[in-house]
Amino acid sequence: MKILGIESSSMVASVALTADGATMAEYTVNFKKTHSQTLLPMIDEIIRMLELDLEEVDAIAVSAGPGSFTGLRIGSATAKGLGLVLDKPLISVPTLDAMAYGLFGTSALLCPMMDARRSQVYTGLYRCEKQLEVVLPSCSLDVRELAKELNARREAVIFLGDGVPVYQTLLEEQMEVPFRFAPAHLNRQRAAAVAALGEVYFMQGRVETAMEHRPDYLKKAQAERELEEARRQGKTKELAAGHSVGTGEAHQKDNKDAEEKNGMASKEEC
User: Fold this and answer.
1) Which residues contact 235 (CB under 8 A, 6 or more apart)?
2) Is the four-CA dihedral 92, 185, 119, 132 of positive or negative sign?
3) How wide is the angle at C-alpha 173 spanned by C-alphas 169 and 177, nearest 5°?
4) What is the full DSSP assignment across 83-127?
5) Fewer CB atoms inside 10 A, N or C side of the chain?
6) What percent of the chain has pLDDT over 70?
7) What stretch of H or E contains 203?
């Protein structure tokens, strides 16, 4: 069985082809280039190197989110386009599931985390000693709340993902249970993991047509949130004119920051 894997949920652009339980080729780049520039040339390169006809692929596994809205849309469009042209089924693989699957065999609790800004991360909790077990499904959490959740479980944890360098210091301050950070070759998204887990899901019948596939953004894009807030405030004209009206969560953060500053000022006065 041959599975083409596509990963574009973050800055990482990655494509891979697995066949009968082995990774035949993988092309991964973690650099500031748009995925629309990289994915198709990367697919073309691995197919050329393997002297393979894309018609031989049995299915296309695509990282389905959460993650970057733009990245997910490009990856989804690429997979859908290939699926339609080749008449091949698609396999939606949750991004965080595939990240955890990359550490198959470990007995520790796995915590992939992707930076979602404003102290939030896309995360989930997994065990993957013998097979992938979802302990906490993909969600958006404040990093401090995540630390509390992990401390309450009293298990050793392995962190991975682009949220680690952003919140590493905070985690080191908050964690009360043993923890480690995954090394360089395992700490980011990889299409080989998407393809390998995709094969598992394929055997379970978890497939869809190219027309059925939709990314799982987990939360609305900033533009959508701003539009909803503009409608709530009756400021759609201002938004259309290019003026930011802010979102509810932005206002809450600003208010919280102001309260903290005022509290600090009060303490200094005392």
Assistant:
1) 243, 245
2) positive
3) 115
4) HHHHT--EEEE-HHHHHHHTTTT--SEEEEEEE-STTEEEEEEEE
5) C
6) 81
7) helix 191-203
Which two tokens mark 223? 């533009």
The CATH architecture to which 104-181 belongs is 2-Layer Sandwich (3.30)
Per residue in 107-159, pLDDT (tens digit) is 999 999 999 999 999 999 999 999 999 999 999 999 999 999 999 999 999 99
Domain edges within the chain: 2-97+189-203, 104-181, 222-269
Q: Retrieve residue 158's tokens.
A: 């392995």
Both tokens of residue 44? 């073309």
Closest among 152, 35, 167 to 114, alpha carbons compared: 167
CATH fold match for the domains 2-97+189-203 and 104-181: yes
pTM of the model: 0.82
Q: What gap in Å lies between CA 215 and CA 237, rounded to an integer?
A: 30
State how far the Cα of 234 lies from the Cα of 237, in Å rounded to an integer: 8
Report whether 65 contacts 120 (CB < 8 A): no
Residue 60 parent element (H or E): strand 59-63
- Which residues are within 8 A (CB) of 167 and not within 5 positions of it... i.e. 6 or more apart? 113, 115, 119, 121, 143
Q: Could you tell me the strand order of the sheet in which 12-19 lies?
A: 22-30, 12-19, 2-7, 59-63, 90-93
Collapsing DSSP states into helix, strand and coil, what is residue 172? helix
